[in-house]
Amino acid sequence: MLPPQEQFLRKAWQAAVDAHHIFPEMAACEAALESGYGHSQLATQDNNLFGMKQHRHPLYGTVSLPTREFLSNEWVTVNSNWIVYGDWQSCFADRMATLERLAPHVPHYRAALAAVKGEEYVIQVSESWSTDPGWQCSCGAIFQSQVLGEQHAAQAQHKLSTVLGLGRGEKVLAIFNAITGDWSATETHSP
After folding, report:
1. What's the rounded Cα separation, in Å, for the pair 73 and 88?
2. DSSP character for 48?
């Protein structure tokens, strides 16, 4: 991991801790993946680390930008309204609030919020986070059993061979594993 990437992760982790995210390390790794370690236009200009689109009832500012979405089995370019945050802590707090608000309607978000381990949280939240089919993964039972536990892996193998979002989850976990030895040093600073 390059020093600027590690610096981004530490700053994002602290913002997630300050926002009371349930898994701040995982949230920081998600932010790294979603924002290109803070280099995306949304991240640099609008403190939007997750590609959060504007809510129905805006709490924050709005910027309209084109984006590619995978809809009806094809890529289309559409203009979307994105949230403009004042800082990273607000972004992490709003992400948690969004997951909590949608959890009654999105089973993967409900499962993510009920997760006991960060790895489980990432896999569950990833299954519903993006329209990009590139986040799919044909994963074997070994990966699924390590991350999700034996029971979920057995159920997943019977239901489908391609797990939506699991590729995203794997990428987030790879970022986490690249710095995992250093998190314990930063955790002593949590409130």
Report:
1. 33
2. -
Q: Where are the domains of the chain?
A: 3-187
DSSP 8-class letter at 72 = T
Q: What is the DSSP letter of 74?
A: E
Element (H, E) at 64: strand 61-71
Compute the distance between CA of residue 66 and CA of residue 134 in angstroms, rounded to an integer.
19
Query: Is residue 165 predicted with pLDDT exceeding 70?
Result: no
Looking up tokens 């370019």, which residue turns up?
77
CATH architecture of 3-187: Orthogonal Bundle (1.10)
d(CA 191, CA 183): 15
- 10 Å CB burial of residue 134 (0-12, 13-18, 19+) is exposed
Beta strands in the chain (DSSP E): 61-71, 74-84
3-state secondary structure of 140: coil
**Angle, helix 141-148 to helix 150-159, in steps of 10 degrees:** 140
**DSSP 8-class letter at 163:** B
Q: What digits encode the pLDDT tens for the residues 67-109?
A: 777 777 777 888 889 999 999 999 999 999 999 999 999 998 9
Q: Are the C-beta atoms of residues 179 and 172 closer than 8 Å to each other? A: no
- Cβ atoms of 109 and 122 within 8 Å: the answer is no
